[in-house]
Amino acid sequence: MRLIEEIKKKPANLEELQLNITIIFIGLTFFSLFFFGIVDALMGVNLGFLKIRLIFIALFSGTAILFFKYKFYFLASNLMMFLVLAFLLMNFFFSDGYQGPTIFNFYLFFMVSGLFFKRPYDLIWHLSSIGLYFTLFYLDISGYITVDKNYQNLDQLFFDNSLTIFMTSMFLFIGVRFVINNYQKQNSDLIRLQQENEKNLKELKQINEKKNQLIALLSHDLKSPVSSLATTLEMMDLDMISQEDFERIIVGLKKQSVNLTHVLSNTLSWVLTEMGEQEIESHPVDVVQLTNEVGDLMESQAQRKEQRIEKLIHVRELILNLEEKEVKIILRNFLDNAIKFSSLGSTVYLEFIVTATSYRWNVKNSGARIPLEKERHLFDFSVKSSVGTQKEKGTGLGLGLCKRIASRIGFEVGYEYTVDGFNTFYLEKK
């Protein structure tokens, strides 16, 4: 039964298909030997032939044991074919020779041998069956051999031939139907694999394009501060720079280094996410403490633009099972964007809200609403250069990275514009 379930479960390659057809053939052959044995007994056919049939059933059972138990597939299949051919030879003599139903069995043998074996073995069994039948046919009509006339009247001859034609047709129908079903399954699987390959190829192309864009953007953004640093050091060696100029350059380099550190951090997170190596661990976290830590961490960046971060936490104490590292990455990105696109001296809000069915963080900054065209693609994972209110540069990867990370940890991210004029980016779990 397990073999039959495996046959139904998946499409097979050529060798597996031939093996499965052999299994079906064994079952149908056993059925035919017993079925026609009963029919012959009811029709009063020669008892000697019934004994021969029982001997062949026993021998055929032995080859089936070789096939199923010891898995000698090739040997057992050839022994079975030999036994069937030998039985057809005996059947010719006991079933009215060329006038009996043996020709239909030879035809079935010819067809089945082509499904069982690959060349040259299929040709050997083809030629053996055709050669044997034509030899017997010629010897019978020429009077060189004598066959038993077991049919007492034409009605018995018609009945036996009709049954044989029916069983032969069933053999062929089941075999051909099995091959067609297997082909259809294989064709469906090939179409599915082709579609998956096309999808994967498209994704790989997109990732490769993003990688190239990212490399170009990082090369451009790194070139300026590195060149400035190299030039500054060279001028210092030559005593060509004043202390005032040096301090001014250092302030500029420090500002650029903060931006680049954030860009490189996002880039590393993106690479680890794409490689599947970003480990995700959840544990009990004090939400109030986490919110304060993120806000305090970004405070120094806000102060460079004379901004401040106001934390609005609407709970006194709350412990949640969270992926702390991932939540912090998302909130830092939201705060970085809010600081970057807010004017000097403004206030950025980091808010935590909890309800009966959900909790969420909001990062809000005042300003004009993001245009609808840009809003549709805010969280698309694509490299797009952006510039803040003080010429701060970015790759545009941050929000796309946030969406990917949020999806992995079961959160939602989104953008809203409130009635009181705040751009709001939120991280929510329901």
Automatic annotation (TrEMBL):
GO terms for molecular function: ATP binding. Residues 217-414 form the Histidine kinase domain. Its EC number is 2.7.13.3. Keywords: ATP-binding, Coiled coil, Kinase, Membrane, Nucleotide-binding, Phosphoprotein, Transferase, Transmembrane, Transmembrane helix, Two-component regulatory system. The keyword Kinase applies. It catalyses: ATP + protein L-histidine = ADP + protein N-phospho-L-histidine. Residues 180-217 form a coiled coil. The chain crosses the membrane at residues 21-43, 49-68, 75-94, 100-117, 124-145, 157-180. InterPro entries: BphY/WalK/GraS-like (IPR050351), HATPase_C_sf (IPR036890), HATPase_dom (IPR003594), His_kinase_dom (IPR005467), HisK_dim/P_dom (IPR003661), HisK_dim/P_sf (IPR036097). This is histidine kinase. The lineage of its organism: Bacteria, Pseudomonadati, Bacteroidota, Cytophagia, Cytophagales.
